[in-house]
Amino acid sequence: MRDCGILMHITSLPSPYGVGTMGKEAREFVDFLKKSGQKYWQVLPLCPTGYGDSPYSSFSTFAGNPYMIDLDMLAEKGLLDKGHLSEIDWEGRPDRVNFEALYKKRFKVLKPACDRVNKKDSESYQKFKKANKYWLDDYALFMAIKNANGDRPWSEWKDELQLRRPAALKNASDKYSEDVRFYKALQYLFYMQWRSLKKYANENGIKIIGDLPIYVAYDSADVWSSPENFLMDKDLTPVKVAGCPPDAFSTDGQLWGNPIYNWKRMKRDRYSWWVKRLKAAAKNYDVIRIDHFRGFSSFYTIPFGEKTARNGKWVKGPGEDFFKVLKKKAGDVAIIAEDLGFIDDGVRKLLKNTGFPGMKILEFGFDGRDGDGYMPHQAPENSVFYTGTHDNDTALGWYRSLTEESKERTDTYLGVSEDEGINFSLMRGAWASPSKLAMVQAQDVLGLGSEARMNTPSTLSADNWSWRAQPGSFTKELAEKLKKYCQVFGRVNE
């Protein structure tokens, strides 16, 4: 079976309220996917974003991002006054999210809806709270305490709260009970809308691919509530943090700063936290893309406090045992392994033994950086071929930045044509590959340049994560053209 799909995060959808949501425009995008012969919609992590607005740095791996809650749908259910919504200035452009404005205004808008949810306390809401108690209680209390402390990280709270002394937690639960209820209701609203959207997609033959970052943020309910799962000292300060070593493109390497898992301890309880995490993700997505897969073979650790990643070292990861346990306890979850970056024999062996499809990136095959292995004809069938990911430039932006030598090589191989549309010439390479699944960025379908890039790694910029498609971009004519191409390469299943 040869399939195709589009990578498009929820926040990048058009909407009149400053950010893409799970409402009308999301369903229209599902309709576009169906009309264009696609089978998969890939989204970035759905979790709440923290500092830097990155969905890969969240306050919780289990929670959903309240920004994505559709306001019109709440108004239709009588939870909000629609007339009031039109009066709010979200201070953004149609092609950009203003996250600062969302942070200041969105929660105030959502508060009345949450109050009504809590007042009614429906049977559906009660079931949600009970089913998600294992993470929801800690997350809601974490956010309530954080709010009361001026959003400061939990490592700066009072010692008794950092250390989760029972009396201190009880006192905080009572003192901030209104906020705790607010954050629980937010999650209920998010997941009711997400389940509805996913159901709509599945009923229309579209499967959802979702991202699962390997690491979690230090300032998160995950670390605060379960510090034993991470390498921390007695003061709950990380001993080691995650990153990537220096290479030809970064003399200092990449210092991510995420706490490292205590894999020895996790193995003793058969990776119970990870099992819960994977089961939760399997409810949200039809296929899970595990980010930084190589970290399960071996991972790079950097002493806490270092300013660069130079003084780190590689440490053996949990390996095949980890995935055997997950399969036994969580079942046969469909997984894509993000096997990019520094790949050695250990990673290749782990990928082979798990049977997960790896990833190939078109841009890597022609820019002279990674060389062999990423040309379309070199891709194995058991792989997912991308034009680029959220961390890469758009296909058109990338092509325009090539050296003359790389551009000539690309032109010769792909037959790049202005008449056809450079973006379609490049996407054709992904569709023509032997890979069982070909994915393209929505920006590539729309023929957008570097101005529409989703993220530039290792940078903090207002442009990162903020791109949005313009209203009316995904037209009937575009769907027909896209479907015609995918039919040519045998990727449309009707």
SSE inventory with pairings:
Blueprint: E1 3-7, H1 24-35, E2 40-43, H2 71-76, H3 82-85, H4 99-120, H5 123-131, H6 133-148, H7 159-162, H8 166-175, H9 177-203, E3 207-212, H10 221-225, E4 240-244, E5 254-259, H11 263-268, H12 272-284, E6 287-290, E7 298-303, E8 313-316, H13 319-330, E9 335-337, H14 345-354, E10 358-361, E11 383-386, H15 395-401, H16 404-414, H17 422-432, E12 437-441, H18 442-445, H19 476-488
Parallel strand pairs: 1-2, 1-12, 2-3, 3-6, 6-9, 10-11, 11-12
Antiparallel strand pairs: 4-5, 4-7, 7-8
Helix pairs in contact: 4-9, 5-6, 6-9, 12-13
Write structural notes for this entry.
- It contains 19 helices and 12 strands.
- With 494 residues, the protein is of the alpha/beta class.
- Helix 6 (133-148) packs across helix 9.
- Strand 1, helix 1 and strand 2 (40-43) form a beta-alpha-beta unit.
- Helices cover 41% and strands 11% of the residues.
Care to give the gist of this entry?
With 494 residues, the protein is α/β, with parallel strands linked by helices.
From the structure above, extract its key features.
alpha/beta; 4-stranded antiparallel β-sheet; 8-stranded parallel β-sheet; 494 residues
